[in-house]
Design goal:
By secondary structure, the protein is of the alpha/beta class. The protein contains 13 helices and 25 strands. It binds one RNA strand through helix 5, strand 6, helix 7, helix 12 and strand 19.
RNA sequence: UGGGGCGUCGCCAAGCGGUAAGGCACCGGAUUUUGAUUCCGGCAUUCCCAGGUUCGAUCCCUGGCGCCCCAGCCA
């Protein structure tokens, strides 16, 4: 009845696929997510993953996970493993379709031979500097290489020698013979193979020539039967080249479709910059909870489902877009509100003594106010409590606007009694150190008659409280677009991490790594998966609760 | 003043010639033992601008303007 309509919003790529399927131009959907294993995946990659795997799932096709490992000097196995873990965690399964560009090295080599024999590729022996100079500029055509018309035999021989390691790095390069005057710079005799005496993470020292992206990517797609090769906008100018190679090689030509990459406010998305944040120790690692990486978000406590919702919500288009961080945070709250159990924790304690109460009680507190099926836990109550300093004001604003504790004011202790502040004690510096309150013992589980108490505050019984470390995270950058700063590092938020101690209700001491709770009235907190030990959880603040009171102030 | 793209609410984004979906944000108000959640309501007479075609244009044409990408032996 209630059609589980995957309210997947339409987008231009779906439109293209629908048309192709209907016209018969294409009869199946095969996509691929092709990361280079030179860093960890970030939220921008998540967008691509959700798009590619999502399309394959919706159209009953398949999506490959293919590592584009054509540059041995930057790639590592550590990244391969991390990427696989992230894709799985996001909820996607590549099944049998795990591939590596390096598996195609021999085939790619044969393809290069084919072009040389056809006279459309040649070995150039200019230096990188000369090549750069002869490429021309955006407005002037390039100059043809003096080696451009070497004979096929000579090219074959030289390329063979390159492959055999007889020439040093940079001494020769295989180029396509297209058009040095092409207005599209990518067509000015692009490089196909460079000499690199480097150890490859998978092929070891088997090769000392490696294909360039342009000569590898399309062929990989073609070999795998990919029907839609979805990539970001900056590859648009490469499409003519992508198709040129496949046509020259007379192999299947997949359709390349470009979409706008994700930009998120208050963060950077370039792998180079993320790597620098890690190597320069501005963060603790790729999985630092402040990082926009999939592993960082996981450690921070963002649920995979929230990230998927986010990727769906932001849509897919071709216009450069800048998504506000609040969209992501809203997705996280939406998911966590539904799933996280409620607990009480005090981050900034102020002592409260209840003068007319001298017992120890075990109160029952529900785990989730809207979901009774989630059960309840025991919440110990005594006459000595900790409450949050923010919940008391010596000189509160007019009663209409403020309903927390203050002199002579009443407030509900969440899941417990209503108390009234009779006096407050200050130390020598004038700082408030303790409140003396009296409880209305007839208000447990019911409201008093004749008056209504609007304020509700959270608390923890002092003798039962457990001390835990809390890491309060804020945005890593305090400028909306760090890339606009002179140097993005100068936009780093000096207060992005504040470590403090919190006093929490006893049930929290057994929290397991990765478990998320809502500390009522404060925010969602997730047990760190690296630094927590048994009986000593460390809580990462995942995201705050919406706070309309903060806005009023 | 080479080529390739893009321009619909503060931020995303549907719409594909028939008279502007939705989300986030924001602003009201209701319910509430989380100032949370939930719930109601508000939020583009207008689609970068100017002409044109048409009974009718955000959607078609022409001309402007603005923004993004490309000169790695990176991907």
């Amino acid at each position: 009845m209630s059609a589980p309509e995957t309210a997947t919003p339409s987008n231009f790529i779906r439109t293209i696929i629908d048309e192709d399927l209907q016209s018969g131009r294409c009869d199946q959907v095969v996509t691929r997510f092709p990361p280079e294993p030179n860093g960890y995946l970030h939220i921008g990659h998540a967008k691509s993953i959700c798009l590619n795997f999502g399309l394959a799932a919706d159209y009953n096709g398949r999506c490959h996970l293919r590592f584009d490992d054509t540059n041995p000097v930057k790639e590592e196995d550590e990244y391969v493993e991390a990427i696989k873990e992230d894709v799985s965690w996001l909820g996607f399964d590549w099944g049998e379709h795990l591939y590596f560009a390096s598996d195609y090295f021999e085939t790619l080599y044969q393809y290069a031979l084919k072009l040389i024999k056809a006279g459309t590729a040649y070995v150039d022996s200019q230096s990188a500097e000369e090549m750069r100079r002869n490429r021309g500029t955006l407005t002037e055509p390039g100059v043809e290489s003096p080696h451009r018309n070497r004979s096929i035999e000579e090219n074959l021989a030289l390329f063979e020698q390159m492959k055999n390691g007889e020439h040093p790095d940079g001494s020769h390069i295989l180029r396509a013979k297209i058009d040095m005057a092409a207005p599209n710079m990518n067509l000015r005799d692009p490089a196909l193979y460079r000499i690199l005496h480097a150890h490859h993470h998978r092929t070891g020292d088997t090769w000392c020539i490696y294909p360039m992206y342009d000569f590898a990517h399309g062929q990989e797609d073609s070999i795998e039967g990919v029907t839609y090769s979805i990539c970001t906008l900056e590859f648009e100018d490469h499409r003519p080249l992508y198709e040129w190679f496949l046509r020259e090689l007379e192999i299947f030509v997949p359709q390349q479709i470009e979409f706008a990459r994700l930009n998120l406010s208050y963060t950077v998305m370039s792998k180079r910059k993320l790597l620098q944040l890690v190597t320069d120790k501005h963060v603790s690692g790729w999985d630092d909870p402040r990082m926009p990486t999939v592993s960082g978000m996981r450690r921070r406590g963002y649920p995979a489902a929230a990230i998927r919702t986010f990727c769906e919500r932001i849509g897919v288009g071709r216009a450069a877009s800048w998504i506000d961080l609040s969209v992501l945070e809203d997705c996280v709250r939406e998911e966590l509100n539904e799933t996280a159990c409620r607990r009480q924790a005090v981050l900034n304690p102020l002592k409260v003594t209840i003068t007319n109460y001298d017992q120890l009680e075990e109160l029952d507190a529900p785990n989730h106010p809207q979901r009774p099926e989630l059960g309840s836990r025991v919440l110990p109550m005594s006459s000595e409590l900790w409450i949050d300093r923010d919940d008391f004001m010596e000189n509160p604003p007019p009663p209409k606007k403020y309903f927390r504790l203050g002199p002579e004011r009443e407030v509900r202790l969440r899941n417990s009694y209503i108390i009234r502040c009779d006096e407050f004690i200050k130390d020598a510096d004038g700082e408030i150190v303790e409140l003396k309150c009296s409880a209305d013992l007839d208000t447990l589980g019911k409201n008093p008659e004749g008056r209504k108490v609007k304020g509700i505050i959270h608390w923890v019984s002092a003798p039962h409280a457990q001390k835990v470390q809390v890491r309060v995270y804020d945005r890593l950058f305090d400028q909306e677009n760090p890339d606009k700063a002179e140097n993005y590092l100068s936009a780093l938020n000096p207060d992005s991490l504040q470590i403090s101690e919190a006093l929490v209700e006893p049930s929290l001491i057994d929290a397991k790594p990765g478990e998320t709770f809502q500390f009522e009235r404060v925010g969602y907190f997730t047990v760190d998966s690296k630094d927590a030990t048994d009986g000593e959880p460390v809580f990462n603040r995942t995201v705050t609760l919406r706070d309309t009171w903060a806005k009023m102030k």
